[in-house]
Amino acid sequence: MRWDNLGDNGVATETALFGTDAVTTRTFDTPEFRGITFHEVRARSIVNRVPGASRMPFEWTVNPYRGCTHACVYCFARKTHSYLDLDTGLGFDSQIVVKINAPELLRRQLSSRRWQGAHIAMGTNVDCYQRAEGRYRLMPGIIEALRDHANPFSILTKGTLILRDLDLLVQASEVTEVGISVSVGFTDQELWRTVEPGTPSPQRRLDVVRTLGEHGIGCGVLMAPVIPFLGDRPEQLRETVRAIAEAGATSVTPLVLHLRPGAREWFFTWLRRHHPGLVGRYERMYADGAYAPTWYQRRITRQVHELAAEFGIGPAGRGAPRRTPAPAPAPAPEEPTALAAAAEQLSLL
To answer: What is the pTM of this model?
Structure first.
């Protein structure tokens, strides 16, 4: 495993994020963590700058974890595990890097005279409310630091564990801008169990949207991914948007499945096992790269927006507060984020 020379952008540098002597490896023999290895590290930096070329609506991110027990077969962040010489398939799902000093490091960086109070986005690489957070409890300290410095932030999650920190989120929202988005690409139970096996069910995630709204925190939904030939039938899109609207979402932003290196190989392995008849269609659809054809993306986006209007919700506005990921055109950065992918697709409109 490569630790000593890893920089914050995933490439070898002279100034690493952490050294070998700062890594402790643990396993826990409990049902929820069986088969999972945690690599506890003391990070040297926790606030990471988004590459300028990405043109995202924020410049800074915080990612307290690497790897994700959600085990989504399509996860774009799988490639980041290869920077540590870890497997991007099962290894990404079961070898979790935990930056145990994230809260104290963030508080220190926010206190720096050089910090100007810029918006910080979380959940843009792997989910900060994945299962590991239940044990390590890094997010309360992170939110407290942001609250105490009145620093604006946003969170994108598939995890219901965010409700544990509801009081902190309410407190933070009283002093700064807080944006929450929940990812729900579909409500089909069979599809969910096979492509997102480690996540809470779509309905439980929509319960998060509802609960946040009841406590005065508007919550948008990133409808991602819309999976071609498996989750894109008109009746499936209608059911998903209807459920999103009933949960009280402030907006819905559709995102078609994209298959970058790392995720592509793992997704096709899953596809050959579960839907071998679709392999040829996927090979043709994604023959030109990581993204579905423009015509297909536009069709899905149009259908979802029409349904959203019918059910009384709309897409995220370009001038709206950061309650959901804001659309903006962006070239693919070296280590892409979910928000970058959403922005790239929405620039088609």
So the answer is: 0.85
